[in-house]
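Forwarding the complex inputs:
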Amino acid sequence: MGGFLRKRQNLIIICVLLALSLFLYAESLSRRSSINMLERVSLAILSPFQNFTAWTVEGVFSVWSDYVSLVNVRQENRRLKTVVDRLVFENTLLTERIKSYERLDKLLDFPDADKIPFEVARIIGKDTSSRVRLLIINKGSRHGLSVNMPVITYRGLVGRIVLVSGSASKVLMINDVRSAVDGIVQETRDSLVVVGANSPILEIKYLAAGSDTREGDRVVSSGLGGVYPKGLVIGVLTDIKKVGDSLFYSASLKPMQDLDNIEEVVVLLKRPAEPFPEKKQ
Amino acid sequence: MRTVIYSIVVLFCFIAQMTAFHFFSLLNISPDIIIALALHGGLRWGKMGGVQFGCVTGFIQDTLSYGSMGVNMLSKSLIGFIVGALREKYINDSVTSRIMLVTGAVALDLFVYRVMTVAFSGYGLPPALGSGEISQAALNMAAAMALIPVFTAIDERIDRTRGEKDGGYMTISSWK
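Prediction (whole assembly, two chains):
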């Protein structure tokens, strides 16, 4: 018996490894609580080190970018001043419009849909490989975060929280293959699904052929699916093509920001499935 | 002593992998230095040591990721095991063998990931390798070629400090 096992040692090792890995993978895909616990523990252990390393590396980079590399700052400053002037003007117009909407809301007794509490978080790490588009942020359950809360930047949607420990959380980005966001084209109101492809450009599915959608049209979240609130900007449509007799267009979506170079995010502390905050009388 | 030092090296690698490397990444891709660790395990301790070391490092990598528990554990264990088995029987040190080992390890890692993901998860990976995966593989190879001599130097240093002889590693100094 001993000789038999020794002879087939290599085969036995590989079979055991394969069985164990497949078992863990199956557990992981069904998101069992034991797997969640393992991931939560490892996140809790490593997050203080990551926080420190991110802080140190950012410090070194900021010394370089703030004090050494200041080429073209003067021209940049002049250009930005022009942009600021334009934005101030637009802001004045929009503030007036918001005020008038608020007055109408009061008249119609609408809930305060846009007063969603949020938490700003810093990115302290990413996934160990580039195969999973995952961010690690420095806020966790202690700050009121929980699973499935939407994560955005001021430019648009980033992803959702998938795992929370005390002081850190994992965010699955919209460009991961596991992500799918139900969206609508802002201009034409055509519905579609935005799917991640582990690349900077996202895929569009189920955009009806024959719609008036054009390249450059903005896509926003539809609010369906129970994770992302309605109206969050996801990106702009590119590469719209008709494929044979297909009922749907083939298209891609360019996010509003470079998803791989985000430093800070905003976590919306409310899911769309929850009721809107009560309006104060 | 050796276990403590190795734990620190592994911890350092994971922190560097998840944090610091992303600041220096090329085309938004950062290298998977755990492949280099698994390779080193196989070269240093043979197939049994290699499979154990690869299993532990791969398992840690899986717990730090999301929804891919078991994938890295399998690929890194196999790398440690196969490299260890080859080292025990066939490998003599040369530039060609180094390149072949690293290329084989990176290809095996990619193969395991694709098979597990496509066959069992149902996520739609394209059948052909994308430019991202090819760039990732090239970067992984470069990182492994650069890092293995560093790991072996750490090993040698531990041996010298403890007054031990080379633990069967394939011509450590020639990897530098």
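DSSP finds five helices and no strands in chain B.
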